[in-house]
Design brief:
The protein has 341 residues and is an alpha+beta fold. The chain has 2 domains: 4-113, no CATH class; 120-333, no CATH class. The protein is built from 11 helices and 11 strands. The protein has helices spanning 4-15, 23-29, 39-51, 55-70, 123-128, 142-146, 148-161, 177-185, 193-217, 221-231, 257-263; strands spanning 83-85, 101-103, 107-113, 117-121, 239-244, 249-254, 264-273, 280-289, 295-305, 316-321, 331-333. The chain is globular, with a radius of gyration of 23 Å.
Amino acid sequence: MATLKTKVTELSTGLGMLGYQSAEQAIDDRPQSMVSVTPELWDMLQIAYRGGGLSVEFETAFENGRRFLESAKGLRGRVPIRIEWKGSHKNPGDEALPVDLRVDHVYLISCKYLSKILHNSSPVRLFEHLLRGNIVTAAKDWFHETAPTQYQSFYESTVQACDLAGSMPAKVIDLSGADRKLFQSKFSTKWPQPVQSSYQEMCDSVSSQTAVIWNRRLSNKTERLNLLWRLLRMGSAPYFILGANYSEALALMIATPWDFDQRYILQDFIVTAGQAGQPTVNWQAQITDRFSNSINEIFGHVEIRWSHGRFCGPPEAKVYLDTDHRLVPGYWSIGENSSLL
């Protein structure tokens, strides 16, 4: 379910494309061209705007939409007839572009505000199936798959620290839902050294073994290039990112794999185990620009972690882009002084 802040930024981006002088004017007018916004959602936007707590988000997103309206690489001053907001609906197809708005059935917009997350995937889908679509994967506990001994040791030290010996299963893989709830109710805010040490040993083992598995799957240049395109969310149609990082607005066109292939050459894709407070794998792409003959590098990492706390369900894999979006080959600025080619 989209948060209030997400709804504000995405809808205000769309409202900025409609020629209004301010976000307040647009919200009060409730334009019919925002075809998927319900009366209840309009009411919520009005209350949020008047409350003032999200004023920066309203104004930043609205200005992004207005810049797209005026951009020669965007709407070129033509006010759109129809803007569709995706909301919480999932893409029913195979190709999952991160689209939040569709403008006049043509322009696809991703609203990205203060986020470096590219994917939130299962480890199996990312590391074994390389983010391919139409892959049905069974739920696996990735920690048990990659570091069973260290995972069990961490579990045992945690059980002892929580004074639950005799009340929990002997093996971590036998935890039930009720066991997990009981476990969490006993968790400490500061763990003793034996627990911290066993956790770090598990993290190191998961990180190193995951890097081995990922490298094994990336056995040739074609696999590495296709994975890079999937990591960067490049699809069969170009789309636009309108958003902001921590210092300024973002306005980018995301190229297709065909566009990327015309201009860039992937020289190498490097995967290494990370050293962090949780299981981490680092990735790096080295790319040559055919036009300038310059070498560009993209850096990112994957955090493998529980989404709902320790021992609560299978871990997930969050893919992060560490390089500034504006410096990524194939992420092209649509600013007035920029060139897409």
